């Protein structure tokens, strides 16, 4: 099994590289072992993680601003993950993905690990992959969380330099090539393909939203310029998904492929980080534990999934991908041998339409900021608040703070949108591929295979937004919500269910001793690209 890794983003390359090596080696070795022993057919795994895509930044969640027909077509023919959680920022999510562990076990529970911060695993970049591991190929990647989409230079407050790499080589000759298209081109020869797309995260702070003119047309109806430009980034991602899906079919690999799509955290709202994501109607934003920060866009598609075109309402956490993909590649018995992880093998649930064995999720314990959260069945507990309660409110479809009553959508506009959307969906590359190959029409309704299941992955809440101060003061006491009945976290029910609060608090405390000291360190001036030929690279 050849292994490729494209673009590693968002301040975490030092640890991620090591962890990714571990992940792919584990999967490859286990898969190889079982293939030899039992002649199991190995799947191709295509794993795409996108950066800062919010709940309402895809049209299959109901967004009428970002048409994502390719993403929607595959999601609607696959399994849509409707109670799927990630960390509220990049480093912890990606750390969990690589290790199958909760971020607090990695020292990733507090803030992101920035590119010029010393990190013990950093030396892994210094050519530690031996010639015997040459089949483990790392192609294009970038080190920082932000960079120019065209020049591929990354700027921090005090430092600037090229941040585009092919293995251990610096890549200078793609100046002018748009980032999303560059990585898509590089991703067309997969077997085990990890694609960490740069978008829709903002570029450098001086020019955060960059997109070629050809993506401008479909979104001229969005009045807010920042949101409009952010949406164009979302269209780029959709285009990328369609291209890769098409390439899989042309390479005759689709029949044997598992395709995973996930975001790494909720959308950043109101211009935070220069971004204009939307998590509507969920509460909060990137950086916090409300649903808007942690309930993620995600789906899995594969011909191996016998009951497709359905919504998976059971709990899932990003740490589950490691044992789940090991299970898919090597069998459930091999996945069971993975010890000391928090992730749960969901492959049998996906393939056989079984309930998830996962009953709870530790959302985080950050002792530095005093923020913690836990989901158990339908209940969710949140305690503490980041950034002095700045992101504790509700934000509309443009990522703007909602005050009072939410305006209703004009009916005529909804009709027009529906007609246009169905056309987009039918004409998308992914839909045409699904029709040609499997006679599947993604415009058809999602089916239900279990009693009480949903057929539409759209969260709806009351138009009346309660004042957050009156319902929940998470800095003073833990708040409790029933997410099944109240997905928008309007109503704090901690006083009605003190025994549930106590039980969830007890569950959190069980993890407290596992919390490692946060790994982020102050920037090291020796990391300055000026000292290394204007390139972001290992400096120690
Ligand atoms: Ca992110």
UniProtKB/TrEMBL annotation:
Residues 513-540 are annotated as: Disordered. InterPro entries: Alkaline_phosphatase_core_sf, ARSB, Sulfatase_CS, Sulfatase_N. It holds the Pfam family Sulfatase. The keyword Iron-sulfur does not apply. Its cofactor is Ca(2+). GO terms for molecular function: metal ion binding; sulfuric ester hydrolase activity. SUPFAM superfamilies: Alkaline phosphatase-like. Residues 43-329 form the Sulfatase N-terminal domain. Keywords: Calcium, Glycoprotein, Hydrolase, Metal-binding. Gene3D superfamilies: 3.30.1120.10, Alkaline Phosphatase, subunit A. Belongs to the sulfatase family. This is Arylsulfatase B. The gene is Arsb.
């Amino acid at each position: 099994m050849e292994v490729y890794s494209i673009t590693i983003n968002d301040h975490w390359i030092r640890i991620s590289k090591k962890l990714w090596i571990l992940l792919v080696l584990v999967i490859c070795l286990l898969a190889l072992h079982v293939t030899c022993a039992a002649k199991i057919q190995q799947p191709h795994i295509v794993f795409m993680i996108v950066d800062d895509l919010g709940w309402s930044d895809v049209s299959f969640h109901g967004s009428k601003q970002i048409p994502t027909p390719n993403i929607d077509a595959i999601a609607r023919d696959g399994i849509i993950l409707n109670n799927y959680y990630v960390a509220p920022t990049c480093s912890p999510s990606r750390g969990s993905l690589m290790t199958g562990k909760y971020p607090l076990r990695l020292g990733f529970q507090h803030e992101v690990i920035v590119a010029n911060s010393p990190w013990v695993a950093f030396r892994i970049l210094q050519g530690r992959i031996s010639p015997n591991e040459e089949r483990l190929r790392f192609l294009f990647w970038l080190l920082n969380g932000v960079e120019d989409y065209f020049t591929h230079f990354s700027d921090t407050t005090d430092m600037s330099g090229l941040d585009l790499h092919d293995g251990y080589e610096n890549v200078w000759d793609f100046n002018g090539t748009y980032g999303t298209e560059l990585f898509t081109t590089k991703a067309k020869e997969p077997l085990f393909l990890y694609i960490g797309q740069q978008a829709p995260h903002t570029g450098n702070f001086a020019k955060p939203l960059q997109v070629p003119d050809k993506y401008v047309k479909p979104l001229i109806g969005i009045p807010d310029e920042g949101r409009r430009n952010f949406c164009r980034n979302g269209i780029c991602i959709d285009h990328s998904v369609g291209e890769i899906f098409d390439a899989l079919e042309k390479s005759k690999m689709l029949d044997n492929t598992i395709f995973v799509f996930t975001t790494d955290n909720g959308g950043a709202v109101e211009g935070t980080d220069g971004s204009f994501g939307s998590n509507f109607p969920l509460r909060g934003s990137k950086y916090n534990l409300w649903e808007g920060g942690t309930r993620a866009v995600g789906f899995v598609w594969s011909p191996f999934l016998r009951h497709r075109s359905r919504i998976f309402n059971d709990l899932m956490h990003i740490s589950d991908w490691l044992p789940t993909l090991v299970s898919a590649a090597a069998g459930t018995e091999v996945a069971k041998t993975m010890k000391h992880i928090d992730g749960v093998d969901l492959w049998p649930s996906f393939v056989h339409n079984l309930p998830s064995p996962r009953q709870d999720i530790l959302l985080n314990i950050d002792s530095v900021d005093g923020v913690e959260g836990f989901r158990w069945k339908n209940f969710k507990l949140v305690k503490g608040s980041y950034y002095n309660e700045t992101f504790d409110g509700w934000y509309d479809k443009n990522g703007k703070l909602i005050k009072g009553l939410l305006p209703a959508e004009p009916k005529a506009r909804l009709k027009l949108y529906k007609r246009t959307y169905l056309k987009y969906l039918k004409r998308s590359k992914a839909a045409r591929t699904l029709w040609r190959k499997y006679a599947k029409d993604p415009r058809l309704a999602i089916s239900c295979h279990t009693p009480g299941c949903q057929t539409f992955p759209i969260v709806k809440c009351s138009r009346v937004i309660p004042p957050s101060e009156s319902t929940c003061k998470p800095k003073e006491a833990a708040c409790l919500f029933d997410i099944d009945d109240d997905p928008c976290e309007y109503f704090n029910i901690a006083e009605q269910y003190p025994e549930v609060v106590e039980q969830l608090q007890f569950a959190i405390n069980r993890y407290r001793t596992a919390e490692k000291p946060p790994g982020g360190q102050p920037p090291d001036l020796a990391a300055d690209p000026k000292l290394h030929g204007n390139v972001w690279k290992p400096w120690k």
